[in-house]
Specification:
This protein is α/β, with parallel strands linked by helices and 503 residues long. It has helices at 3-7, 20-32, 34-46, 50-62, 79-89, 92-101, 105-124, 128-161, 164-197, 199-226, 231-235, 239-249, 252-277, 297-300, 306-318, 350-368, 397-406, 416-427, 449-462, 479-482, 498-501; strands spanning 280-289, 321-328, 337-342, 373-378, 386-390, 436-441, 466-470, 485-488. It has a 6-stranded mixed sheet, with helices on both faces.
Amino acid sequence: MSILDKLLPHNECQVVRSDSMDTRMFTELRELSGNLQKVEKEGTESLKTFPPLTQDIWSSLFKFSPEFRKSEEIAPSHRFNATLVDKMTQMQQYRELRVHTKLDEMHSALATVALAGEMAKTLKEELKEQAEQVNTADLIQQELQRAIDATRTYQDIADRSGNQDFQKKADESLKNAQHYRTQLQQAEVKLEQSCEAGANKIRGSVRAATESALKDAKDISEAMDGWGLGYGELQKMPIQQKLELAKRLQTKKFKLMAQVIGRMRRLAVHKQKTKLNQSRDEIHNVGIGNDLSRVLPIELVQLRHPILKADFKRKFVEGKLMQYELKGTEKQGKGPIVVCVDNSSSMSGDRETWSKAVALALLEIATMQKRGFACIHFGGQSDALEIIEIEPGEKDILNKAIKTAEFFLNADGTAFEPALSQALELISKQSFKKADVVFITDGNAPIGPKFLSGFLDSKKSKEFRVFGVLIQSHNTETLKKFSDEIVDVAELLDAEAEPLLEI
């Protein structure tokens, strides 16, 4: 080994061993994620070695079995990254987080942004001293590398030409390299001492960052469960679409929708399973589904294992658990669902969120039962209606569901007649024959006696029902004129929601 080789420390920047495919995947992810780019930029302002740290965080979360390099294998300027990654992987929160992120691009990306974002803040404040020492070591290491490169260049020229001037330059560059190597060793010792003295502070900072990422991961998982987004459906999406979807679902509006949708789904599923179980009592086969009352014991055993539990959860959402099939008769023949959603300005804020959550919960019921669905957004008399139709088995349900959630007229007035007329027009179509109509609003609007009489006649002849849903209001005067049942939105989260959930 030459003198120069002895002077040159390890130059590996990554703590987690990664192959070219890992690096390419992370690079593509960084290009697609504006949030990740922002976090890296913020972190680099405090810690020059932050970009490799970000990739290490992602790799440790995404890879099936991440392998970590020993500290002595890593460039001195990047060993602090190894300290941070080591502290992170020792946390119980990290192990819980891995249940969400392992081999999952989207959850790994989101958790990386959350973790790296918290670490960027910590490096600017609590760990500022260590970050500054790392930056000093990084600068020294760069100077050392330049001195070594210069020595090799001058020595090569001197050896080939015999020129003594170049030999002197080579000797001078070697002295510089030796000087920088000594400085780097001193910087390493100083940083190591600083890390030992601040071990508790480092551990606490990493724990807080990991806890924050775990909370975000749980929130996004719950939101996706609430929206009925199964693992299989997400796997079909390109990563950019997944990230855009996750960004939407993390907003306050979409989180509340997810909670209400999830709650209503559980009530609806329980109600319908109860009705069906009353007419089915003889086991005759084994199939797949998500009826917990009929799931095979071999599936339930997975709930006792922390990792298999996540697989059980995925199969439950996708309806792919092995379960007993029962003989019996089931009531069939339910028609489509038409939902009219008030988009007047008084519905903005929480009222809009509740109304969209109810509409999307009904879409979930329609999808489960393979029924047609339509949403009519209405405002004032002169406002154009926004109509979103979803046929049974349609593949583009997710995008239309998001459109249903995001569209809002914020109209100045409120007019019921245009929406009811459009509902009648839809029900006149063969595909919406005998549909159930759900009318969601927070107030009253005038309805002419002639229109009302015609609507009620059509309702009788076409054999459909109307359910009124009041959003934070008690104004039933107009609704009761054309509705068979009226419920308050608050009642939809308890047993009193039964009439609506049976539609």
